[in-house]
């Protein structure tokens, strides 16, 4: 009977461990996140491991070769055998995958009507009222301009909440 187990990896050795485990005949699962960030004004996508320093190995008959694979520090053990990771956990992680990468749902940082300060751009330093998330990286705010309120769209990481 096969089951999933977790393997702890040596720092910066995830690719080596994956390669060696596959070469040894093990099925592996190393879920990666899709992280979109702004770096020096450019959109950059990174793909770090969802569980840094760990991956999942499907144990079928023998597990000792997986334990001693290059890049693997140890298998997470329970009473002398690799601890079982429930199939439901693996299925839940896979349910969040889009195009092979895990996309975690973003919780809104602000509520409608919160007072925020704009940190960058042409309205830098201005106070505004948060309206809504308009995309993955943009939010809508209301600015007090020319005696009225005007809607503007800014980068989500370019605002902070005013206490």
Keywords:
163 residues, mainly beta, Alpha-Beta Plaits, SH3 type barrels, 2 domains, elongated
How are the SSEs placed, and which strands pair?
Blueprint: E1 3-9, H1 14-23, E2 27-29, E3 35-39, E4 42-46, E5 54-59, H2 64-67, E6 72-75, E7 77-78, E8 81-82, H3 87-95, E9 97-98, E10 101-102, E11 115-118, E12 127-133, E13 138-145, E14 148-155, E15 159-161
Antiparallel strand pairs: 1-5, 1-6, 2-5, 3-4, 7-8, 9-10, 11-12, 11-15, 12-13, 13-14
Can you offer a commentary on this structure?
The chain is mostly beta strands. The protein has 2 domains: 3-102, Alpha-Beta Plaits; 115-161, SH3 type barrels (Roll). It has helices spanning 14-23, 64-67, 87-95, and strands spanning 3-9, 27-29, 35-39, 42-46, 54-59, 72-75, 77-78, 81-82, 97-98, 101-102, 115-118, 127-133, 138-145, 148-155, 159-161. The strands form 5 sheets. Strands 14-13-12-11-15 form a 5-stranded antiparallel sheet, with no helix packed on it. The protein has a 4-stranded antiparallel sheet with strand order 2-5-1-6, covered by helices on one side. A two-stranded antiparallel sheet has the order 3-4. Strand 13 (138-145) and strand 14 (148-155) form a beta hairpin. The longest helix is centred in the N-terminal third of the chain and has 10 residues, at 14-23. The chain is elongated and about 75 Å long. The N and C termini lie far apart (56 Å). The mean pLDDT is 89.
How would you summarize what this structure contains?
This protein is mostly beta strands and 163 residues long. The chain is built from three helices and 15 strands. A hairpin with an 8-residue loop joins strand 11 (115-118) and strand 12.
């Amino acid at each position: 009977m096969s089951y999933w187990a977790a393997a702890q990896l040596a720092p910066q050795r995830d690719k080596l461990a994956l390669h060696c485990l596959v070469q040894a005949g093990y099925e592996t699962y190393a879920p990666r996140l899709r992280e979109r960030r702004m770096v020096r004004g450019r959109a950059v996508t990174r793909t770090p491991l969802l569980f840094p320093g760990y991956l999942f190995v499907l144990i079928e008959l023998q597990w000792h070769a997986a334990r001693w694979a290059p890049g693997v520090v140890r298998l997470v053990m329970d009473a002398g055998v690799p601890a079982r990771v429930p199939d439901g956990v693996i299925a839940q992680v896979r349910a969040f995958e889009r195009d092979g990468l895990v996309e975690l749902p973003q919780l809104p940082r602000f509520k409608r009507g919160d007072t925020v300060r704009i940190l960058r751009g042409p309205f830098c330093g201005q106070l505004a009222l948060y309206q809504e998330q308009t995309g993955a990286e943009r939010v809508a705010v209301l600015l007090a301009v020319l005696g009225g309120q005007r809607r503007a769209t800014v980068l989500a990481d370019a605002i902070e909440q005013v206490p």
